[in-house]
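Students often ask why we bother predicting the structure of a whole assembly rather than each chain alone. The short answer is interfaces. A chain on its own may look different once its partners are present, and contacts between molecules only exist in the joint model. In this exercise we take four input lines together and write out one structure for the complete complex. Read the inputs first and try to guess which parts will touch.
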Amino acid sequence: MNTLLLVIALLLAAAMLGAAWVSIRVHRVATAMLAAGLVSLFASVMFLLLAAPDVAMTEAAIGSGLTTFLFFFVLGRVRGGRDD
Amino acid sequence: MVNPLYILAIGLGGAFLLGLLPNRQRSLAYAITLACLAGMAGIAASWLYAFALQGAPAMEVFTAGTQPPFAINFRIGLAESTLALLTLLVGLHSALFMRKTLITQGRRAMAVLLIFMMALCGVIFTRDLFNLFVFMELCVIATAGLVLLSTDQRALGAGLKYLIVSQLVSILLLVGIVFLYHSTGALNIDTMAALSVNALPGGAMAFFLVFIAVLAELKPFPANGWGLDIYESAHPAFSAIFSTATGGATLYAADKLLQLGGDTWLPVVTVIGIVTFIAANIFALAQRNDRRLLGYSSVGQIGLLLSVVGQRDLLGDAYYYIAGGLLLAHAVSKAGLFWLSGLVAQRELTAWAALRSQPVMVFAFATLLALLLGLPPFPGFYAKWDLAQQLAANDKLWLLGLILFGTLLEATYLLRWFGYTIKRDADEQGLVWQSGKADVVFSAVMAAWLLAYLWGYLSGHGNLLHAIPLLFALAFLPLEWLPAKLKNVLAIGGLLAWFYFNYPDYDPLKLIFAAVMLPGGALILLASFQHGKRRLGFYPAAMLMFAGLAMLINAHTSFDFFAAWELLTMGSYFLILRGKHSEPHALSYLVFSLGGAFLIMAGFAIAAQGAPEFPLTALAEVATAYAPWVFVLLAIGFMTKTAAVGVHIWLPGAHAEAETDVSPMVSGILLKAGLFGLFMLLITMGKQQLYGVELTHVLLWIGALSALIGNLIAIFQEDAKRLLAYSSIGQMGYAVFGLALMNHLGWLMALMFVINHYIYKSMLFLSVGGVAKRTGTRLMYRMGGLITLMPLSFIAVLVGIIAMSGVPPLSGFGGRWVLYNAIMTTEQRLPMVIIFLAGPIAFLYLFRLIHTVFLGQMKDELRKVREAPFWIVLPQMIFVAFLLAFALVPGLLLRRVDTYMNQFFAGSGGLDWTGLTITSDFGYWSPVQIMIIIAVIFVTLFLWLLFVNRKAQKVKQFNIVFAAERPYRPETTHFAWDFFAPYRRALGFLTVPVFERFWAAVAEFLHALADTLRRFYTGNGQTYAIHVLGFVIIVYLLMMGDQP
Amino acid sequence: MMDWIAMTTGFILILMGLYGALTHRNILRIIVSFTLANTGVNLVLVSVGYMLGRTAPILDKAVPMAEAVTRIIDPLPQALVLTAIVIGLGITAMMLTYAYKLYEAKGSLDIASYRELKW
Amino acid sequence: MIRNFAVLLLLLGLAGIFIHLMQGYIPATELNQSAHYYAAHSAEDLGAANIVTAIIVTYRGLDTLGEVTVLFLAATIIGMVLANGHKAQRSLQRQLPPSGELLTTASRLLTPLILLFGAYVFVNGHLTPGGGFQGGAILASAALLLLLTDPLKRFSHRLIAVVESLSGLLFIAIGVLGMVLAGGFLDSRILPTGAFGTLFSAGSIPLIYSLIGLKVGAEFTSMLNNLAETEKS
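Now the answer. The structure tokens for the assembled complex follow.
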């Protein structure tokens, strides 16, 4: 049980770091935003593992949900706002 | 007492209430905002009343019905209530200032402002670390919002840079907080403080992160580019809040954290603070934009405060007095200046000249600058004095030196700015006069004077605003509307009255100085009667100088002495600045004087070794370990005032460019302040040795060289006033030389110079000034033959130069006679030779005054020149009479002094005053006999001349043949042009302006440094964030290196 | 172990986020990178409160009131993280607004093009 | 690039700081004094089963007030900044193709459900995970859904503002009541703590959390709404 959790945690950590890497390195801004949202989502699962359900909920709703939407709202309004 | 949570409730409730209002009712919303701010300020004021006047104990406020550390708590004490009141008042006034902007932007902007003020109060009150973070984040967001109130498009960029940096800061802060919580098990600052964090595992590191993050909010060098951009582009009323309220609250947060971290962190704070202070002030030197300049100054002031916070362990009880004084001075002045900048249309520093269209604004500007610089009688002055005492007593001279250096830089750019305001061309539309905004500025000015009174009241040294001379000078400010002639009567009356009432208290030495400064000043003021209208600004400045002089003579403690010194420096600066072309010269005068003053302050501080009151007489008992250093510091300080060679370069410009009646004041009178200081120093400290060098011998050399070089340069001057100015350097050199002889005759000679120099230099400056006024030029080769047109001036000059060059029969000869007697007593042969050499040189330049100006060919364009105005001639004639009298009976004044001096040089080398004859070891001097002999010789010669020339033919001026050519530069053909060219070829090497070049190079270097280094603020927000990160890492590495 | 994993991941996320924020020139990318770093901070914060073998700080039938002290993990960091997340959102929203306004004013999202204020 | 390299170097330094921190980090085996107090007392004193909620709403209620204010501030500033000069462009807004029938219907159906769920989350904040912030975010997501299906849909600024302000004012009022009636600002014991574990328990915590939920929901909506309005033709 404990080992299983650990493995999951390790996998999550790897996924988070991978997504973060993508978010930093990728060329398209939209992808970066999505990847960042993904990191947040993985983090909220991690919070569950860390026995923090309140934080998990908040992170999922606010950190990954609303924030990502805000990003896309603005991205849609700055046309041509690619990596310049 | 009212619960502080009501401040929060009012602020927040007001903000939420604004949300309920329809967007249209903007005036109502504005009224609500003001009411909320006023209510909050009222609460803070009620606390201040309770703490300060009723001595109430600090108030602990718990929330959630739970004790800390389990719930958040607030603490309100004197410091908190003061800061909160300051914050809220600045906020209220800024809201008043921004009335139009706020109403245009609507209720949302007002809500943001209210929340901002609430959050700042929260930062001040809270004792909980995480709560502190929350309030700080609120401040960040509110700041980012309020920056956008500016009409300046660039503010947008500045706001983003700020957000980027604060993101970085908040990341560090959060990580630090949670690890600190992990180490201590609490978030309450007091609970954590009790646990000595540094010893806990991981505690020191966690604290470091928290602390460095809060410090980064204080805009330390180099992590402060973002702050400067905000200052430059934000609405000035917001900048006022950002500089004062945010700065104050964050500083207080850092102070709280230090209680948590303990004293081991104090050195870090000190170093960061002082580096920031110096760097900001150097950068500001090259700044041309007013708000950015104020930004640099804000950054610097916060740095200074940080370094004071770093001394909290030394300062003990005085900590809040000193830090509070500096903080309030910074806050009120900076807020006032930012508001004032909102009234000036253009952003160039020179555009502030527009203030002159409303003289009262110039007064406001001067007050705020003085407050900022910590000049007397403002709080910063008391604070810096006490700080210097403590630093010196605790062997932190390096810090004291750096603080004073930074302050000097600050004074340089701030007063240069003041100079622009007074002297540059004003744009008529340059001042956006709105009475509402002006009232806000004036409330800052009022607060400045109130604080001045309060800090004086709290000071252990007595209240400067109770000093009658100062009050008398200040009284001329509200009387500025009176006509100049009436004010002149008042001024003369004041000087004479003060002298009369203090007469019984003067000892003979002081009496001489007092007589020169007070009735002497009154005499020169007679010349001021020629000015009509109101002559705005003259009387407050002049009387400030005289107040300083009067207080200087009466001073008994080092504090009184220094305060008087600063007052007379400021007064004379304002006075000199009035001259037409004196802007750069006044500045260089001030920089040297303040530099000298700071040396004096440091000297006194070292001497006192922490004693709360230091009587001047106690200089005699300074421990031998410091005594020579004290001597050196004080002597250099005084000699900047006497313009000894090396630090003389300010004098010629300052004296030559001053107004006609100001030149004699600053030359004849002001220079004596330095001599007075030297007298005081030598009487108390006597001979001192440093590394085996007899310091009075050094003085001897300085005096001799000053005499030689001053005189030598004087002979090459074409400008009559500059000639006189250089001659002053020489004359003061004589006086210093005499003092440094350290014997009876030497001092007597110095005293004779005090009197003589006053008389003939005042007289000559007046007559030359009168001539310059009539002829419209000060260049001597442009004059000539004025003897028939201005006979009275001619007489004055003639008598003056006879007196001065030391030829019989006038008092200059007496001076010389005493001088040569004195010189014979010294063993220092070389300086003696130099002094001897300087004598005849003096004659060369004095001769030019008569020869070139009054004799010779009359210039065609000067044919219609009239005698100088009556009021300028009158004092000259009085001086002539006085010179004759003094020549006949020098004993009148000197006799008492001579006996007085016996107590210092017991029995040896005194003079014998019997009847009208004075006898020394080397011979005797009978003034009356000499006078008679000279008269006989003169009359004989004159008669012989008449006899020889009896057949001479009168030649008309134009009865000569002109060559039909016109030289390229006509003046070069004038016989008086470059009159002493042969001497220049021979001795010119001595007049090479090495010191001018040296100081110019110093100034050049600092400006170039500023201009190069500030490019480091590239304007890129990302770079600024990198700076912040770099700052954190550097401090980390330095600390790790310090404690492995 | 769990807390170590989370903490290390958190720190690495912070560093990666900061690297992104300090090297990308596009303002939107900078903001995205900062949210990454914020997520990292949240992870670090929560992992500091974590204790092996204990449960979430919610009392119910599984964790009765009397056993709370020995059964639950430290609730305080979680409370702090909640606040931090919300504040982070506030700041992100502010920055996005700024980005939008800047773009509107100048048509560029390159941070290097906003350098009128300097020196 | 030199710049990237410098950043890398500095971050290496920061990594050093972090490693330093982790070296000093000793995982706790016992609850520290604060946590111990909360574990032992919050249920008893405040009657809240969710200790995190007890801390957020009561013990550190001031933080939460600040937090709500952060959102309020952000929403207000966004409104202030974006409101300038966009009203006139409303008529120019581009005509979007109508959203699909399915999407519209689904959103109409879903919205009340989401709202209900949000309310459930914050009302039960003292018992189960979740609370005002999460619930508020869920409320806002309903608004988001409506915005997405109908980009031209606008919510009444007035309504949002009233909800926002009223809930804020009530929050403060309850806080002040705590000062008057109970032990201090935001003390939740102005109402009876009730039976442990039931909906109407834990004093004013559910009330406060509901207000927070409403306020947060309103603020998020206002932010989204303002951003949505910026859309130009």
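Check your guess against this: The interface with chain A takes residues 50, 52-53, 121, 129-131, 133-134, 137-138, 140-141, 144, 220, 223-224, 227-228, 230-232 of chain D (CB under 8 Å).
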